[in-house]
Design goal:
alpha+beta, 277 residues, disordered C terminus, outer membrane lipoprotein receptor (LolB), chain A
Length: 277
């Protein structure tokens, strides 16, 4: 045998051991078939949805990062929101980002939005429940909320549609949490969700608007989920003195009901435009 074809015995043993370890490792974490991945993802989503639905009052912090690619360059904006929910008919939030500080309140009858950077506020009528109001915000006021699907009384039904395909992908780290990573495809968007503790709660949600120019995406990371009780005052709109009222733009023919004056605020009609977000 020519020496150029000889391989040291030690190297053979080491290579064989490495191959065996790889085979054993693969056997311990087998790849799922598409049907198994779909079933596992569905089970995790249903568990998360049931857990979220069981909590009537909760709060969380959401870090939102929006990205869009144009001319080969990707631009990003970031916003942090603290959201408080009390089902079936209360929501409050305050957000800080490039657009300044924005606050909002839903009280079962109206939504009130305040832009502290512009010193303006707006108010519009809303349906009597949070589930209806989330749809109303999107359809009537054209307000898109990436966190909205997780605020419905059944997040599973809000997320999943008849054309949804996908399932469990793998486990990944989100900050210091180990999360199940699920990925789904729909006609208009692709979305991914990361769930901690075997689907108990959401860690992160990413939505990609694949039919829009630049394929913009929004990634929302959730922190500090808290189910403590809150007072009614949490959902009462707080408008500082001197802020100007502007008209909220609606996209239907129904006239908004007359609004009472708010003490300490100039309730002028302003120009017809969307409230700053």
């Amino acid at each position: 045998m020519s020496r150029k074809f000889e391989v040291p015995t030690q190297r053979i043993i080491g290579t064989t051991a490495a191959l065996l370890i790889g085979v054993i490792g693969c056997s311990q974490t087998p790849r799922l078939t598409p049907e198994e991945a779909k079933a596992k993802g569905d089970a995790l989503l249903r568990t998360m949805s049931a857990n979220m639905a069981a909590v009537q009052t909760f709060a969380f912090t959401a870090d939102e990062r929006r990205e869009r690619t144009a001319n080969g360059k990707t631009g990003a904006t970031s916003t942090t929101r603290r959201v408080v929910v009390r089902r079936p008919d209360r929501l409050a939030f305050i957000g800080k980002g490039e657009a300044g500080e924005i606050a909002g309140w839903y009280d079962g009858a109206h939504v009130t939005l305040v832009s502290h950077g512009h010193k303006v506020w707006a108010r519009g009528p809303m349906p009597p429940t949070l589930d209806e109001s989330l749809d109303f915000l999107a359809n009537e006021y054209r307000v898109q909320m990436p966190t909205a699907d997780l605020l419905y009384s059944s997040p599973y039904d809000a997320l999943m549609t008849k054309d949804t395909t996908g399932g469990w992908v793998d486990t990944q780290a989100v900050g210091d949490r180990t999360c199940d990573h699920l990925a789904y495809q729909q006609a208009i968007v692709d979305w991914e969700i990361w769930l901690d503790s075997n689907g108990q709660l959401p860690c992160q949600l990413k939505i990609t608007y694949k039919n829009e120019p630049g394929r913009p995406s929004t990634t929302v990371t959730y922190h500090g989920l808290d189910s403590s009780q809150v007072s009614n005052d949490t959902f009462t709109a707080k408008i500082p003195d001197g802020y100007q009222r502007i008209r909220i733009m609606r996209h239907a023919s129904v006239e908004a009901p007359p609004e009472p004056e708010t003490p300490g605020a100039a309730a002028t009609s302003g120009s017809a435009k969307n409230p700053p977000r």
